[in-house]
Amino acid sequence: MAKPTIVILGAGYAGLTAALTLQKNLTEDDAKIILVNKHSYHYQTTWLHENAAGSLHDNHTKISIDKLVDQEKIECLVDTVTEIRSEKQHVCLAEHGCITYDYLVVALGFEMNTFNIPGVTEYAYTIGSIDKSSHLRQQMDIKLAAYSKQKSDHPFTIVVGGGGFTGVEYLGELTDQLSDWCKKYQLTKQDFKLITIEREHSVMPGFNLELGEYAMQALENKGITFYLGTSVKRVRADHVIVEKNSWTQEIPMSMFIWTAGVRANRLIEQSDLPNKNGSVEVTADMRVPHSKNVFVIGDSATIYHPEHGEAVPPTAQMAMQQGKICAKNIVAMIKGDKKEIKPFNYKEQGIIASLGKKDAIGILFNNKKIFGREAVMLKRLIENRVLYQLGGLSLLRKKKKF
Ligand code: FAD
Question: Which residues does the UniProt record annotate as the domain FAD/NAD(P)-binding (predicted)?
């Protein structure tokens, strides 16, 4: 019998973990495995706010996929997925044409959600991928250089749309960078105005209130002004229009960065997979409902909390856990061991948000709240653990964070 072909789309946390787990559990004779990714490298999405602010070099965030996977077992295709057709059992790629699969793992991640606010697509910078983060940092440099030459009376105003997890992490890095920017462009801190617009009445809505308060206080101390209960209504080239209690205000700005919300990859919305705004409500074993051989994992999958029934917010740790269980289920199916097909049980390990290099906040699996130095240390530990899980000791040595 011909060996089955497993195609994995996306080498983010979910897809890469699935590929590495398959590689460990299958031989070359068991299956042909193809991993498709836009780039020849995986990037650490959880570090992108640092790349965007310029506190971390892009190369540190990129990890060559060739160095992580065994190419005897996995064929890596650097290409862009353009179509998913499950009824034809194929996916199409921009350069390599269409490939037929026996098992498909869709792990194409997220993209920024603009909520159709006029001007966000045209004028906002985002932190949605390594390319977008690099672009934001490069544009910041170009605009700061121009500003320092023209010596305007107006401050260099950076407006961040969204005071959620990504916005807060970016603001922490941004404020850390101010001294360097002042030196590099002969500016003073008074030349900067830093504003964050948040629709809800607290920072990091949905997160713990006390931790949100701590984050806001820490960032205000570093020079950020928060406009809470305020919505972004329109973005133009040089100003943002915001609304609070039916009053609108125009905020002149030099750069607008949109961090408020993510959505599943649009490609899934255009596919024939059942989905809601690109996200697939997967079955317990991470399959598409009524499908025998298509799995969706990571930020493109919706799963519900077993206790309160609400959708679980997607995270890197969840993406990695799903990658592992999905791969193990495919192995069980290939080996005809139905008993080994397992449901996904999310093990919440807690979450930590950085507020720059020296401060952080977090909530642990046992609901313990942590702040400051302790949270910073734990965040580093988690980041280093992820490196170890993806590439063992050699990757940890090369990329570890202190
Ligand atoms: P991704 O990591 O987005 O991977 C998707 C992959 O698919 C990418 O390699 C992409 O290039 C590729 N791809 C996309 N489209 C195509 C295409 N058409 N063709 C080919 N390839 C394609 N989570 C945490 O748990 N802890 C944190 O501290 C944390 N911090 C974060 C900080 C920031 C700034 C951001 C943006 C997110 C953070 N998250 C964090 C969330 C976490 O990064 C995501 O939940 C996680 O990346 C999801 O993994 P994924 O594999 O589903 O998708």
Answer: 5-323
Same fold, 5-111+263-349 and 120-260: yes
Q: Is the CB of 315 under 6 A from ligand 1?
A: yes
Cβ–ligand 1 distance for 317 under 6 Å, the answer yes
- What is the number of the ligand 1 atom nearest to the C-alpha of 300? 52
What confidence score (pLDDT) does residue 247 get?
96
Which residue ranges in the chain fall short of pLDDT 70?
none
pLDDT in tens, 16-31: 999 999 999 999 999 9
Q: Is 89 in the pocket of ligand 1 (CB under 6 A)?
A: no
Atom of ligand 1 nearest to the CA of 323: 51
Task: Report d(CA 279, CA 94) in Å as an integer.
Answer: 23
CA-proximal residue: ligand 1, atom 2 (nearest):
12
Would you say 87 and 293 are in contact if contact means Cβ atoms under 8 Å apart? no
For CA atoms 197, 199, 201, 205, give the dihedral sign.
negative
Q: How far apart are CA 153 and CA 335, in angstroms?
A: 70
Position of tokens 């990504």? Answer: 166
ipTM: 0.98
Catalytic residues: 169
Candidate CATH numbers 3.30.450.150, 2.10.10.70, 3.50.50.100, 3.30.470.20; the one for domain 5-111+263-349: 3.50.50.100
